[in-house]
Structure formats: C-alpha cells, structure tokens
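Two entries, shown back to back:
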Amino acid sequence: MLTLLLLACTGPATTDAPDTGATDSADTSDTVDTEPEVILWAKYKVDTSSTLRGVYSSGQGVYLVGSRGQAWVGSATDAWAAYALPAELVGVDINGLWGNGAAETLQLAVAADNGLVGVLSGGLWTVYTLGAGANLSVDGTSLANLFVVGDNGIQHFDGVAWTVENLPPVTMNGVWAYEGGAFAAGNEGVVMKRADGGTWAESETNKVANFYGISGAGGSDVWVAGDQGVILHWNGTSWTQVESGTTETLNALYVGATDSILAVGNDGVTLKYSGAGWKELANETNQNLYAVHGVSAANAWAVGNGGLAMQYKE
C-alpha cells in the first residue's frame, strides 16, 4: 500500500489560441455533415513528451496517464503538476485510466503493461499483477465492479480479488461497464457481452474492423469504433453500422448522454454525435488522440501524442 503524493508543479500549461465562432445549426438528417463544426477546442501542452493514453475529468481536476509511467493532474485554469504513481508503475507504459469521485472521494484505476493494474482508494494505491501481457483498458461502475481487458483476457475485480472471466480468441482493446453488465471490444471485429453472473458471449458485429473504443448510455444503447472510421451502434438486439464521415482510425468514445457523444482518433480527428448523425469538430492538431472523457459531452478532454491535452467546452 502506497500513500498518494502530488509532486510540485513542473511549469504552467501553455495554451494555443482555440477555435472560436458560432456553432453550426443542428444536423437534421441521418447523414454526416461534411463541413467541420466551428467550436472551442482549447489546446494545452503538458510538460512531457510521453504519449497520453488515459484521461479522467472529475469536475474538480483532470487526470492524465501515459507512456513511461507518466501521470499528471491539472485543469484549464491551473498549471499541470506531475502526479505520483506507485513505484511498481514507474517507467511502465500506462494504457488506460478509470476514475470516480473527486478530492477526498477520488478513486482511480490504471491498466498498464507487464500485467499491472493500480487501484487508488482512500488515498492509498494497491498494485496487482494480472498476467504477463499488457492490460489495455479499464472501466467499471465502482471499485467493487471493475473490469480490465488486454493480452491477459477479461478480468473482473469485486473489491477484494481479481477473477479471469473470459479468454477471448483475440485481444480486447476496450471495455465499458454499466449496472448489470459490460461490453468489451477487440481485434478482428470481436465484441464480447457480459451478462449478470460473469458469463461472456460474443455479440455478432459482422466483423467489419478492429475495434478500440467502446462506451454507451445503457445496456441497449452502446457504441463501438475502430479502424477506418467504422462506428457501430447496439440497440439491445443487433449492431448497425453508422456513417462517421471519416476514414481515420477511431480510438475512443465518450457517451455523455444518449444523443451527446464524442469520438477521437488518429490525425487529430474529433467527432460529435448529437442524435441525428456524426459531425466533424474543428481543432488545431493532427496528433493522434487516444482517450476522451468529461463531466458531459459538452465539457470534455481528449489526450494523445506528445503530451497533448485538449478541452472541448460548449
């Protein structure tokens, strides 16, 4: 057990001039608006060259994790400060981040290489080794219902111990949990669905792409995204492919509500769904983006290559 520590601030965030201007009117068709919407993506450079692969916005601060065990905390108004992780994670690539609460109630979980998972609760970290391969994604509804996926299969934490629940035929790259179940997305178009009791079964997607990002608003409203801009939607019965308007690989999704969703991917692509179709959002980067999270889809953060953090705020 290790005590949580915040290191001294390494320097102020530098902010590039964001896009400004009026927001386009709402899309009223089922097709994608090919003209980028002019909105506010404020760009920040964290003082690191690490690739950032996980982000959690608590509403009181933003937590970032990435390669070589780098972790940071900050906000749009505060400088970024290095955030101390347990010694076991120093120098280890961190691939995913889950969070819950803020300040004294803050809970975090990180998925990392070398089979490592770190869990923060009550200001103390505990590090678990769940296999030899990389853990790529982590999500849950609480620390008593936490999932990690990657090279070591699909594993579940009940607050006391980890259990290997499934060894899929391919690597799972993303996981999303809700009360009563979970979904995992992986290579070769494989999506696994969990029912109560820990039983996982493959959900037929026609295997159209490798999948990386997955999120939803409930067990009958789930989105998955991956190679060549492919996006699929689950309505509780079947998957339907939805036009995204991009051919870039999409790496992550954040669902703020049924009709308010963000997607981010390679070459700086950022998309938003507002109930009638996906629309490209203008920004000032061509860096790959790997994670997105917010307090809502109207106030969110995306992170990526070279210590890049961007805030979207309507």
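entry 2 starts here
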Amino acid sequence: MKITTVGIDLAKNVFQLHGVNEFGKTVVKKQLRRDQVSEYFVNLPACLIGMEACGSAHCWARKLQGFGHTVKLMAPQFVKPYVKTNKNDAADAEAICEAVARPNMRFVPIKNVEQQAVLALHRVRQGFVKARTAQANQIRGLLGEFGLIVPQGIGYIATRVPELIEDASNELPGSFRVLVQRLLDHLKELDRQVAELEAQIQTWHRHSDVSCKLAQIPGIGPITASALVASIGDAKNFDSGRQVAAWLGLVPKQHSSGGKQNLLGISKRGDTYLRTLLIHGARSVIYRAGQKSESCSWINGVVNRRNKNVAAVALANKNARIVWALLAHDREFRSDYMTALAVV
C-alpha cells in the first residue's frame, strides 16, 4: 500500500523509519544504515517526510527534497508529547510521523548551504570568545593566588600582566612567570582567531544587501545582522513580527489558568545567541540615548518608567519585529516612519 507520511529518527549510523498510508495505518517500520537512506528514498514515491531539527537534519532535508519529497522539520520539544511509550528509536520515529501530520504543528525552516556556512562562522567565533574569556579569567585567578590583583576587563590582561611578570620585586617564581607568559601567548592567539573570523563575517555582511539593510536599525550591527539573515532565512515563514520575537524568546512567559493572566519574565526560548546579540545591541542604544539631550525618545521613556534591563529587552523585542517587517515586506528602515505615518 502507498506510503504517504514517513517519520525519520535521525542518528549517526542507524536511522529508524515509521511510515503510514493515507488512512493512518502503519505500513513500514524499519531501520536503515546511513548508506542505505538515499537509495531507499530515491525509489520511494513522493510523500511527506518529518524529522526533528537536530544535527544533519538540514542536510538530509535538502537531499530528500531533491528526490521530490516534501520534508518538514520540527523542534524536538514539539515532538515529545506524541511519544506514547518509553523512549526508543521506534517510538520516536512513530511520534515524528504523527506530529508532522498535525495541522497546527510549527515547523522549522530548512536552511540552505550558505546559511549554514555563515552560522558556522558565528558558532566558531562564539566558541573562541568564550575560550578567550576563560583564559583571561584563569590568568587573573592564578595571579590573584600570589596577591597580584588585575582589574576586571579583558583589556587589562594585555596591559598589566606583562608588567607584573617582568617586575622582579613581586617574588614570583621563574617557572610561574614562564607559565603566565605561555597563557598570555595563548590569549593573543585566541584574540587573533576572533579577529579573523569577525573579518570574514564583515566581508559576507558587506556583500549581502539584506544584511546591510538590517544593519541600519539602531542596535543591530554587522555581526547581529548577518546572524539574523542566516537564521531567519525567508521571513514569510513567520506570520508576524511578534512571532519572530516569540521565536527568539523575547516575549513574556505565561503561567495562566482559570482566566487569570500571570505573565512572568521573558520565555528565553529559541536561539540564545541571537537573543544575546539583540539585547546587547539594545544596551548600547540605551547608553547612547542617555548621553543625548532628547528626553522625548521612546527608549528614554521606557528607561524612566522601568529600569535599563527591562528597557533593553523591550528594545530588543521591538528590533526583532522591525527585522521581520523589513524582510517580509522588502522595505528600507526609516527612523521617522511613525512620524511620516502621522503626517499622512
């Protein structure tokens, strides 16, 4: 009987399949090795294929789409409620097969090769930044054990530490001075790697008209703009700007019942990296707005009513909605947009 829907539980070597017909009756349950997947689906009539959005999911989605199938990716947390029994590969594949057929299921847009390559640059850069911060903290901690305190801030490591290890009056052992110099060299190498990756991201940003368009928004620079373009892809996959903000975890988390609304802090769902970039960009806008004499601006009004942390999240939420509007409707950013509407 014809297979209409297939759920695939992805893995490194063994893939579990669960297929049903148009009446929802199970037709196939089988395991395939990695080298058998392409051969199996190229000979299978076009059908709906569901997978969890995980490692290698986008690659397999593009490949199976090339065979004529309709492929949809889902967040794992949306698939979990459909698992009926204990967790195993067969139960996961059956849950994926059932979840992908739900009419109200939310799907993850499939990324192309260029999007994945840009996001890989961002992830590697982020890893180097974390390693650089950890290395700086280790140097500061080791020197603190000898009573030598370096001020907070990674910039002080490069300026103060060489002076400390050259100072003969601080009674540091010679082996320890060599060790700290080794750590300083490693810190410089990490800093060089971060600078090179940032240069590559900047180059990609300058050659992308969409990324340059987003960089015109206050609080969004080349790093944030390129990450947003690569992550969002086609903005029309989202119904509204609020859905983009919710996708990034910038909306209140609800815990409501019995008709009583109870809003908590932000949900913090979605991509932590993008949310962090937007909030840090918003902090820079708030800092600049505080230096200006214009007290009637929207962000200054939020800061006066609440606090800077709340204002930063509010501005990040607003910027996420503006990003959707620019991408979905192919518009250019205008700082006087609301004023122009009022005049019209």
